[in-house]
Amino acid sequence: MSASEDGADSLTPAVADGANDDRPRQPRGQPLIGLALGAGAARGWSHIGVLRELAEQGIHPDIVAGTSIGAVVGGCYAAGRLDQIEAFARSLTRRRVFTLMDLSFSGASLITGERLKSALEQELDGFKVEELSIPFAAVATEVGTGHEVWLQRGDLAQAIRASYALPGIFEPVRVGDRWLFDGALVNPVPVTVCRALGAEFVIAVNVTADTMYRARVIRDDPAAQRKAAEAGPFGDKPDISFVDRILPRYFERQRGDAPNVATAMIDAFNIIQDRILRSRLAGDPPDATITARMEDIGMFDFHKADQLINVGRMAAKRALPNIFAHIPISGASA
């Protein structure tokens, strides 16, 4: 890897010769379009709706860069697996989300991420970043140095995992001789990456634009709470698993609740991400921004994919007039 002037470690993008891509490309004479998909945990499912709406309007990104959940959706899109990641997102229930969060006892994190790793590897088995049909990069942060790393070669599933490895929550991922974690610490919405890969018109998708979001839980009504208390510590439903009882206490709280270790780390991470995002977008603003506002969506509300995908579609629709003003697409309707 070589260090670029802005301190990011990057590789020259490579596209495999003869790579097949049946997705339509921009007409000749149109600028190369880059799509920067931002971090935002569960809110990132809205990226799927954005991509669907843009495609229906005749806009197909030539270059994709993603950070954290943006790398998950962007990498699957670049691999031609958008249908599969959408089906997975829509299949999630609240209980299944917590079941996928396998507890870690290594001391390096709260979650090992092995179950998510297995799901990703099963879907993206054999995909190499440099062999994707369109240029793609996943943004990660190097442990220890804080260097911004653009993953443009090697195993796609591994690159995605490194990009979403939230410090303290997921275990860091080793790529080559580096340990990497969530890229949101250095570049939450990777506009700069798209430009470095050759994009002439960059569309940024920001899913954390509104007030700082916090994970939250919908409390049972008082009568239900009394019934649960009377039933004992394990309730009256013997099929409730360990993760159903324990994990929500770590990751979900209402405003006013005393923070535990996990929520304190997540809130601190969100504050840092918010400040870095403002600075990065001010220094290198995108040509168009799609802003998805979701004040009622918590960080771990991955089970709300239907709602989130629709929010993404609506956000893209609102941004279409500005996009078409700069890159009019023949036959598209705003």
TrEMBL record:
Domain PNPLA: 35-195
A Pfam cross-reference name: Patatin
Motif range (DGA/G): 182-184
Keyword Glycoprotein listed: no
Highest taxon of source: Bacteria
Name of this chain's protein: NTE family protein rssA
Stretch list, region Disordered: 1-30
Catalytic center residues: S68, D182
GO MF annotation: an example: hydrolase activity
InterPro entries with a match to the protein in the record: Acyl_Trfase/lysoPLipase (IPR016035), NTE (IPR050301), PNPLA_dom (IPR002641)
UniProt key word Hydrolase: yes
UniProt record, GO biological process: lipid catabolic process
Motif (GXSXG): 66-70
PANTHER family: NEUROPATHY TARGET ESTERASE/SWISS CHEESE D.MELANOGASTER, NTE FAMILY PROTEIN RSSA
Keywords per UniProt: Hydrolase, Lipid degradation, Lipid metabolism
